Amino acid sequence: MQILDSVNMIYAKRPYYGARRLKDELLDLYSVSVTRYKASVLMKALNLRAIYPKKNTSIPNIQHKKYKYRLRGLSITTPNMVWATDITYIKLKKGFAYLTVIFDLYSRYVVAYRLSLNMESEFCKDALNEALVLHGVPKYFNSDQGSQFTDHTFTDILQAKKIIISMDGKGRAFDNIFVERFWRTIKYEDIYINGYETMEELETGLKEYFYVYNFERRHSSLKDRKTPAEAYFGVKILRQAC
After folding, report:
1. CA 174, chain centre distance (Å)
2. d(Cα 242, Cα 229) in Å, to the nearest integer?
């Protein structure tokens, strides 16, 4: 196999690899030894570059009330103890779509998600209301300090349910590290590979992906490598038509 073919095959499966990781993969998979510089040259020759999130979706509103981070040192021992949320962007052929997810930190189960073509807070509130209707009330709810989550119409929903509000400290992305890892997972396993061009394609693809993620994909951080659904509900749930 030609070395350029090998590079193409690695990139097709791992479009987030840069030159350093490409170099290692060439050696591990194909016993091809190159320098990091040579790997970079090969990527440029094929017009390839590592794909990774760049757009900032966490824009605070200085007029909104901010809440303390409440999860430091907390032992999360049951489902619905802590839910976390965030927003990411997805590049389409024309413009961007915005995705928000709410997921249970104990089980990694996605309890709700919503897509939007703008960054207004409505789609975040829709996701929150759906999660509360379908899955009950968590003890804690964690987010960053983005304006969608500090908007009083969002926090009012949480306070009405007597949910403890927790927000990441300014400039402390690692406070919500579980969500950051989730974005890497969904983008590397689905979005970058499928290259959705329209909102309709994205909605269809994510519906399937979230089902697989929740009910079929075993999670390395869960005991006995359970699926998120097994950890959340406590039983294995057979696949249904979705």
Report:
1. 14
2. 15
List the structure tokens of 68: 């303390």
Closest by CA position to 219, among listed 182, 187, 190: 182
Distance CA 30, CA 7 (A): 10
Q: Which CATH code is given to the segment(s) 82-233?
A: 3.30.420.10
Q: What is the DSSP letter of 189?
A: I
Q: Is the pLDDT of residue 242 over 50?
A: no
Q: How much of the chain exceeds pLDDT 70, in percent?
A: 86
**179, 111 contact by CB (below 8 A):** no
Residue spans of the domains in the chain: they are 3-45, 82-233
To 5 degrees, how large is the angle CA 153–CA 154–CA 155?
A: 100
What pLDDT digit, counting tens, does each position of 92-122 carry? 988 899 999 999 999 999 999 999 999 889 9
Give residue for tokens 């306070």.
159
Q: How far apart are CA 115 and CA 87, in angstroms?
A: 10
CA atoms within 13 A on the CB side of 40: 4
Mean pLDDT over 123-141 rounds to: 98
Alpha-carbon separation of residue 36 from 14, 18, 22, 24 (angstroms): 17, 9, 8, 9
Q: Give me the DSSP letters along 78-111.
A: STTSEEEEEEEEEE-SSSEEEEEEEEETTT--EE
DSSP one-letter code for 112: E
Mean pLDDT value across residues 83-89: 93
- What are the tens digits of pLDDT across the range 44-83? 887 776 655 445 555 566 678 899 999 989 999 999 999 9
